[in-house]
Amino acid sequence: MLLFRRNSRIARLYSIAVDSQFRGHGLGEALVQATEQAAVNKGIRHIRLEVRHSNQASRRLFARLGYAEREQVPGYYPDEDGLRMQKNLTLDTPAHG
Q1: Cα 73 to the chain's mean position, in Å?
Q2: DSSP for residue 45
Q3: Where are the alpha helices (DSSP H) in the chain?
Q4: CB-CB neighbours of 63 under 10 Å
C-alpha cells in the first residue's frame, strides 16, 4: 500500500507483504519497484517507510533497493522501536535504478 498526500512530493510505503511460502523469489523487490514506478508516474520525488528495528530481512531489501536509514522512531510499534527509511526518486530515471 502506497499512500499519497495532496500537494506533497513524498509518498509513504505503508505496507508490503509476501506470503512466506513465496519468499526468496524476488516478489518483494518487484512489489517495491512497482510502487516506486507508480510514485514516479505521479511526480513523487521521495518514498518514506517505517520498519521494525529487528526486521533485518526488510532492512536489507530496502537498503539493496537504495533506501537509506534516516532515523530511529522510539515507540513506533507497541512493542518495539521503528526505523524510518527513505529513497529519493528522480523523475527522469527508472525508479529501481
Answers
A1: 16
A2: -
A3: 27-41, 56-64
A4: 13
Question: pLDDT by residue (tens digit) across 1-14?
Answer: 899 999 899 999 99
Q: Which residues of the chain have pLDDT under 50?
A: 93, 95-97
- Joined together, the cell numbers standing for residue 39 give 510514485
Nearest-10 crossing angle of helices 27-41, 56-64: 50
Q: Cβ of 14: how many Cβ atoms within 10 Å?
A: 12
Q: How confident is the model at residue 22, as a pLDDT?
A: 87
Is 45 exposed, middle or buried (CB count within 10 Å of its CB: 0-12, 13-18, 19+)?
middle
Question: Which residues make Cβ contacts (< 8 Å) with residue 37, sequence separation at least 6?
Answer: 94, 95, 96
Grid cell in block for residue 48: 518514506
Write the pLDDT tens digit of every residue in 22-35.
888 889 999 999 99
